[in-house]
Amino acid sequence: MITMPLLFREGHVYLETGRELWLFDTGSPASFGASGTITLANETFRVGSSYLGLTAATLSGFVGVDCIGLLGADVLGQFDFILDVPNGKVVISTSDLEHNGTTISLGAFMGIPIVTGQIRGRDCRMFFDTGASISYIQNDEMRTSFPASGRVSDFYPGFGQFETDTHSVDIILGTLELTLRCGELPGVLGEVLAMADTEGILGNQILSGQAAGYFPRRRLLVL
Fold first, then answer.
1. pTM for this predicted structure
2. Mean pLDDT to the nearest integer, 52-71
3. How many CB atoms lie within 10 A of CB 201?
4. Spacing of C-alpha 160 from chain mean position
5. Which of 58, 187, 202, 222 could be a cystine partner for 126, CB 3.0 to 4.6 Å?
6. Angle in degrees, CA 4, 35, 114, rounded to 5
7. Cβ proximity of 93 and 199 under 8 Å
8. Residue 79 pLDDT grade (very low, low, confident, very high; cuts 50, 70, 90)
9. In b/e form, how buried is each residue of 127-138, taking b as 16+ CB within 10 angstroms?
10. What does DSSP say about strands 135-137 and 176-183: parallel, antiparallel, or unpaired?
């Protein structure tokens, strides 16, 4: 078990190794980086130099932060994490960790975690994607029934940058009642959600105000 710096910059979450930043992205199946390797909790992993055409340099341009790469589900899925963004640290372990809070069961598609929330009493399956600075709901009627919350810019590997209008959506996760800023994914990105029988994405907003346990091997999220 080790503790490392965890930073929240420009709407994204980064793990710091030495002086190098890695985007912590549960929504990506694969990791990549300019260094070729990443070592966490004394485990070393080889990673490619790009994923779906995205390199460390282009990633840095999209997020507005100079980073060396991205940690995706292939690496993150080997550990337990306590993500404490408010205090700027993450605990990483190859053994089971515990965290007090509301326990939410996770599904998975290609290694990407899936949560089931409720919106106006209706179940909504969503990818849990810490690489997303906001959340997404593809059902227009459901999303636009909530107050408008402005227009934002975001990006996704293999697609690039895009803009979307957002709404402040009330969602229930387990016993938690949250209000999240939600947009709509464009074109082919929305089709990928449908392939996985999901209707949206739960972004990293849920990490900004509290510590969370992310235990992908046991398919659990604790908030």
1. 0.92
2. 92
3. 26
4. 17
5. 202
6. 60
7. no
8. very high
9. bbbbbbbbbbbb
10. parallel
Query: Tokens 């779906």 identify what position?
Result: 52
Q: What are the two backbone dihedrals, phi and then psi, of residue 72, each rounded to the nearest 5 degrees?
A: -105, -170
Burial 15-51 (b: 16+ CB within 10 A, else e): bbbeebbbbbbbbbbbbbbbeeebebeeeeeebeebb
Task: Using DSSP, state whether 71 is helix, strand or coil.
Answer: strand
| pLDDT tens digits, one per residue of 80-117 | 999 999 999 999 999 999 999 999 999 999 889 999 99
* Residue (of 50, 27, 210, 61) closest to 133 by Cα position: 27
CA separation for the pair 36, 68 (Å, rounded): 10
φ and ψ at 195, to 5 degrees?
Answer: -60, -35
Q: What is the DSSP string of 98-156?
A: ---S-EEE-EEETTEEEEEEEETTEEEEEEE-TT-SSEEE--HHHHHTS-EEEEEEEEE
Choose among 117, 127, 123: nearest CA to 202.
127
Distances (CA, A) of 28 to 6, 70, 122: 18, 9, 27
pLDDT band of 203, cuts 50, 70, 90: very high
Listed in sequence order, the residues at least 6 apart from 96 whose beta carbon sits closer than 8 Å to its beta carbon are: 80, 215, 218
8 Å CB contact between 112 and 127 = yes
